[in-house]
Specification:
Chain A is of the alpha+beta class. Helices cover 52% and strands 15% of the residues of chain A. Chain A has 3 domains: 7-119, Orthogonal Bundle (Butyryl-Coa Dehydrogenase, subunit A, domain 1); 122-229, Butyryl-CoA Dehydrogenase, subunit A, domain 2 (Beta Barrel), CATH 2.40.110; 233-377, Butyryl-CoA Dehydrogenase, subunit A, domain 3. Chain B has helices spanning 37-53, 69-79, 97-108, 130-138, 191-199, 245-258; strands spanning 2-6, 9-11, 33-35, 58-64, 83-87, 115-119, 142-152, 155-162, 165-172, 175-179, 202-205. The chains are: A alpha+beta (382), B alpha/beta (263). The A-B interface holds A 6-8, 10-12, 14-15, 18-19, 47-50, 52-53, 57, 61-64 and B 70-71, 74-75, 78, 188-195, 197-198.
């Protein structure tokens, strides 16, 4: 299968690349060291239309699609994975489910503001007691007239500190496990909404990860996505799309590792020659380049399937699993190629290594990806 | 008002340029081409003028060259240009600045442009001749290498950087100007802009569409001929002189006399 980019895909990639190189990358180390959210950069991404790539034109988006989105995500993540995850969450985990399952009224209310970056979004599924076993979530939503009253705590919420709207999966029926979960769009300005603990993380330090606390938070019933009890399906389907974005993120980090390694291997001399002339370095770099190529094709394939509205759960899981593994391998080798220098903050590869780690964990751990793949391959288990 | 922006497709500043074996040109295989960076200021300025005037002003991007220039035109459309014209014909190939200006002047003339904008020079051949030549052929005033441009009615006030200071020139429209770094900060193409640009048609103009014959355009219509490209000689390797200061000085003096023959 061959992927020749169309003229507009090339333009989107080129625009993202230029913005990543000239605006995002130069500030990335500072933002990450100071654990400061790059608000201005994210706003600019919104102004340029990079937060509305999955939003139809009538709601202020560009409807550029998933393929164009992964092209842009790779470039943004190559410069800064914290910025990249903000963009991926906004597109794949917040705007996409609103486009698919929200009422016309909700779409009109939220999509234009999310697409332009005026509003930032978060996706709230995990809880202190439920991560991979998402269906055991306990945050409750009890109907009261035309409203639901929410109580509970959400955990590990990306962009939790800055989010204006949150797509939250909550339990509307304690007697059913998966079919007792519903999805709501919640405004952070609501009474009873508060941001809990802000986590101090190994990587992605310029992106906030927080707890969200709901205390007698009243949400209009009209803010429900899809049907009552349909929330788990929405959550899982949404994550299939999100995984393609995280896979693109991993490819971006891996590419940043390769770029830094090539630069260093050509500059640095040891034993009287460029270290890139040593076969030990060449093998590392060759493997990195090969892995990136393979991972990128898996990402492209999953994105294309999603754009064509074909089943893509298995392909998204494969892309995410493989890309996150090779990103971590590339980061480790990039640090190795840099030697002692790679262990210092003076070079960006230590950040790439810290940032790469999360791609094997969030939006489904590597173990969950294998489960998804195995279940789509093994059909006749009793 | 009608604004024409001339844009050129040039090799990316970061690409490694290789000269063809016969020295007649550069290897274009695998080379990445981008919009000439100075032309980005011109596109941005044209769009800003249109945004300021808030009337029926339109911006037309025009590019002469092979099919790859359509990518640069697409970028101009994505930034906000209204229309695009690709001036392309095998007969136009190999033209010098004079021949290219002749073709472009004939393409622009029927458009009724009030303002022609372009970069101060193409970063490929650095000739900086095409736009001045177009202005001459059209018989309109020109101001080059601008860092500020103001349009008021049918007058343009242009600021240009000269040795030791600035010079302000007033022009009566129609006029042609070229843009220098610092004139503005070119915007990025927006996603909606890119998607809209995709749907726009790029008008193609060839020899049959201009009032010129084959002998006046391209290589045939050129008064200068590019003979050969030469790569800069590679810098010889640096020689490190070992030893203490006295030994180094002695060896350096010897090398300067015997090898470099400068003392």
């Amino acid at each position: 299968m061959q992927y020749t980019l169309t003229e507009e895909q090339r333009l989107i990639q080129q625009t993202a690349r230029e913005f990543a190189d000239t605006v995002i990358a130069p500030a990335a180390d500072k933002h990450n060291r100071e654990a400061r959210f790059p608000r201005e950069i994210v706003k600019e991404l919104g102004r340029m239309g990079f937060l509305g790539m999955l939003v139809p034109e009538v709601y202020g988006g560009s409807a550029a699609g998933n393929f164009a989105l992964v092209l842009a995500l790779e470039e943004v993540n190559r410069a800064c994975a914290s910025t990249g995850v903000t963009m991926s969450v906004q597109s794949s985990l917040v705007t996409a489910p609103i486009v698919h399952w929200a009422s016309e009224d909700l779409k009109k209310r939220y999509l234009p503001r999310l697409a332009s970056g005026e509003f930032l979004g978060a996706y709230a599924l995990s809880e202190p007691g439920s991560g991979s076993d998402a269906a055991s979530l306990v945050t409750s939503a009890v109907r009261d007239g035309n409203e639901f009253v929410l109580n509970g705590t959400k955990n590990f919420i990306t962009t939790g500190l800055e989010a204006d709207v949150v797509l939250a999966m909550v339990r509307t029926d304690p007697s059913h496990k998966t079919r007792g979960i519903s999805a709501f769009v919640i405004e952070a300005a609501s009474k009873g909404f508060s941001v809990g603990k802000k986590e101090d993380k190994l990587g992605l330090r310029a992106s906030s990860t927080t707890q969200l606390v709901f205390e007698d938070l009243r949400v209009p019933a009209a803010n429900m996505l899809g049907d009552l009890g349909g929330g788990f399906k929405i959550a899982m389907h949404t994550l299939d799309g999100g995984r393609i974005g995280i896979a693109a993120q991993a490819v971006g980090i891996a590419q940043a590792c390769l770029d830094a390694s090539v630069k260093y291997a050509e500059e640095r001399e040891a034993f009287g020659q460029q270290i890139g002339k040593f076969q030990a370095m060449q093998w590392k770099i060759a493997d990195m380049a090969m892995h990136i190529e393979a991972a990128r094709l898996l990402v492209y394939n999953a994105a294309r399937l999603k754009d064509e509205k074909q089943p893509h759960g298995k392909e998204a899981a494969m892309a995410k699993l493989f890309a996150s593994q090779i990103a971590n391998q590339a980061a480790r080798e990039a640090v190795q190629i840099h030697g002692g220098a790679g262990y210092l903050e003076d070079f960006p590869v230590e950040r790439y290594m810290r940032d790469a780690r999360i791609t094997e964990i969030y939006e489904g751990t590597s173990e969950i990806q294998r489960l998804v793949i195995a279940r789509s391959v093994l059909h006749n288990l009793k | 008002m009608k604004i024409v922006v001339l844009v050129k497709s040039v090799p990316d500043t970061e690409s490694k340029i290789k000269i063809t074996a016969d020295g007649s040109g550069i290897e274009t295989q695998g080379l990445k081409f981008v919009m000439n960076p100075y032309d980005e200021y011109a596109v941005e300025e044209a769009i800003r003028i249109r945004e300021r005037l808030k009337d029926d002003t339109t911006v037309v991007a025009v590019s002469l060259g092979p099919d790859r220039v359509e990518e640069v035109l697409r970028t101009a459309l994505a930034m906000g240009a209204d229309d695009a014209i690709h001036v392309g014909d095998p007969a136009f190939e190999g033209g010098d600045a004079g021949a290219n200006a002749r073709v472009l002047a004939e393409v622009i003339r029927p458009l009724g442009a009030h303002l022609i904008l372009g970069g101060k020079q193409g970063i490929d051949d650095d000739a900086a001749q095409t736009i001045p030549a177009i202005a001459e052929l059209l018989g309109i005033p020109q101001a080059l290498i601008l860092t500020e441009l103001k349009i008021e009615g049918n007058k343009a006030s242009a600021r240009r950087r000269v040795e030791g200071g600035d010079e302000v020139v007033e022009l009566t429209l129609p006029a042609a100007v070229t843009c220098e770094k610092g004139l503005n900060e070119p915007r990025y193409a927006s996603l909606p802009g890119i998607m809209k640009a995709k749907k726009k048609e790029i008008r193609k103009v060839g020899l049959a569409d201009v009032k010129l014959d084959a002998g006046q355009v391209g290589a045939a219509g050129s008064k200068s001929k590019l003979v050969r490209y030469h790569a800069l000689p590679e810098r010889p390797p640096v020689k490190m002189i070992p030893g203490d200061a006295a030994q180094q000085a002695k060896e350096l003096a010897r090398l300067l006399r015997e090898e470099a023959k400068v003392i």
